[in-house]
Specification:
Blueprint (H helix, E strand, L loop, with lengths): L12 H12 L11 E7 L4 H10 L7 E7 L4 H16 L9 E7 L5 H13 L3 E6 L3 H5 L11 H12 L9 H7 L5 H13 L12 E2 L1 H9 L4
Parallel strand pairs: 1-2, 1-3, 3-4
Antiparallel strand pairs: 4-5
Helix pairs in contact: 3-4, 8-9
Length: 226
């Protein structure tokens, strides 16, 4: 007598849910994955540190640690301070070494020579420079509109006030404001900032305006978002 074919059990609802959960479970993080340490030294004592500290709060601590220092000095001294802080860390064997060091500074009213020398020295010392010409606020403006015309720092602030209704230079909530505003796009700001940077003329950095390399630091840190 031929054996009856056994009926295949139909999965119940609980089985289906369990199957979906297995497929959609998050990627396991390798516990041996090396944590990266960043040092960001900025010219501004509030605007830039507030922004990058807020950004760092969005990153997983087990993957990346960001230390931000605002020193309130000219571009060249910002780079020198970054070099000194990196060296001090090297002399502290009990502390983890910095994997990347970034200097954040603006052209502002500083002499062309100071600005150009700061970028050159950073390059020679293997320090990344997230500079802006003319001001850090260019990075904010690019979240809303493309700007390839040289304007003053005051005009950046006027533009931001017209977009946001109000803008305070040292606003500690600026990162969150940019993330939450319906007309703001960080991805677009990165794209437009990269376009400005790649379109630089064959002149010295002090003459290339507007331009900002802040996008590169933001892009680098965003790589650690899960």
């Amino acid at each position: 007598m031929a054996k009856k074919k056994s009926k295949k059990r139909r999965p119940n609802f609980k089985d289906l849910v369990a199957s979906l959960e297995r497929k959609q479970s998050p990627r396991k993080i390798d516990s041996k994955e090396k944590r990266k340490y960043f040092l960001i030294v900025s010219e501004g004592e509030a605007t830039e540190p507030n922004y990058f500290k807020s950004l760092a709060e969005q990153l997983p601590e087990h993957l990346v640690k960001v230390e931000v220092e605002g020193i309130g000095q000219d571009p060249l001294n910002v780079v020198k301070a970054a070099i000194e802080l990196r060296q001090k860390r090297k002399e502290s064997p009990l502390l983890p070494q910095f994997d990347e060091v970034w200097a954040v500074f603006d052209k502002d009213d500083f002499p062309d020579e100071n600005f150009n020398n700061a970028i050159e020295k950073a390059d020679s010392e293997r320090i990344e420079s997230a500079y802006s010409n003319e001001a850090f606020e260019l990075w904010y403006v690019l979240h809303f509109q493309y700007l390839d015309t040289a304007i003053s720092r005051k005009q950046y602030i006027t533009t931001l006030k017209s977009i946001l209704g109000n803008y305070e230079k040292n606003d500690s909530e600026m990162y969150d404001i940019l993330q939450q505003h319906p007309d703001s796009s960080e991805a677009r700001a990165i794209k437009w900032a990269e376009k400005l940077y790649e379109q630089r003329a064959n002149t010295t950095p002090a003459k290339d305006k507007p331009v900002t390399r802040v996008y590169k630091l933001v892009e680098t840190l965003n790589n650690f978002k899960q």
